[in-house]
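FORM 7B: Structural annotation worksheet

SECTION A. Query
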Amino acid sequence: MDVNLQFWSTEGRSFFQRFLHWTDILDPTVLLKSNEEIEKSRLLLQTSAQTLQEPLRDKTVNEAWKLSLSSVHPGTGEIIPRVFRPPAFLPLATPLFFASLLPHGGAKQAFIWQFLFHTYTAGFTIANGNATAKAEETALPQKLPQKQLLMCTGAVSYAAFMGAVPHYIGSQSRLSGPMQVFFRKILPIPLLVYLSAFTVMIVRGTERENGIEVMDKNGKVIGVSQKAGNKAVQDTALSRAALFGTAGIISDSLLYFVKRTNFLLRNPHALTPLRVLMTVSTLGALLPVSFSVFPQLGEIKRDDLEKEILSSTEETELFYNRGV
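SECTION B. Predicted structure
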């Protein structure tokens, strides 16, 4: 079992534990660390048995964990590309999320922002998913990469097109009153929630189709399970949808109450900065919550797995890397 997963097995048992750790891991300053520093941190964690039992009592060890958890994929042990590391999610996804929900004058502009947003979130999802399916690509070097590429391209294009539809309809001059409000103000957020979950389900579809590795409590791989893969992807899709949906609703609700005050009448140019501030604040507050809702080291009952796995172990609970 990778040291990152060993960390979550002892330090991620409760939501509160995971939340506190994610608030630390999501520090954007760790993106400035070099690959050499990350590799040294990994070496420290892998060579010192004490760090696995007492991971947070020493400052040097604590920093090593922070670098490893924020920068290294627990399934492959490889360093994640900088733009797709968890600490990069907030500074990169927030402006795209903000722009994708703004009312746009035309379908082309709305489609571009939707396409950029879903392209980034799809890339982040792939980079932080379970690596079992990627390992299978070595045996089938031509089939799976093409299939995954087509699935990702199709999912992102579909999401961008569907996301732009309300903006296009809402911009039509023949619409007015409640219908215009519906398409411009109400529909975009629930549609974005659905499309965010949809892209996660599609781009990580190979995990559901091929299955992911399940382990016992000691890290021994018992087998590959489609049911565990489906559970991992569904949990991630649900947390991603809840993140963007809740952030959109809260920021819009706060803006609605601000508009009812005299503040914007005295400062009409403050609307856009206020909207940006509320979006950044809500996403920043909800991101560690979203990553903490489900354990990084997921658990699944032995009886819920395939028959071939049932005959391979007597353990009542097995574990898997859920991904982010």
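SECTION C. Observations
The first helix runs from residue 3 to 11. The longest strand covers residues 221-225.

SECTION D. Sign-off
Analyst initials: ____
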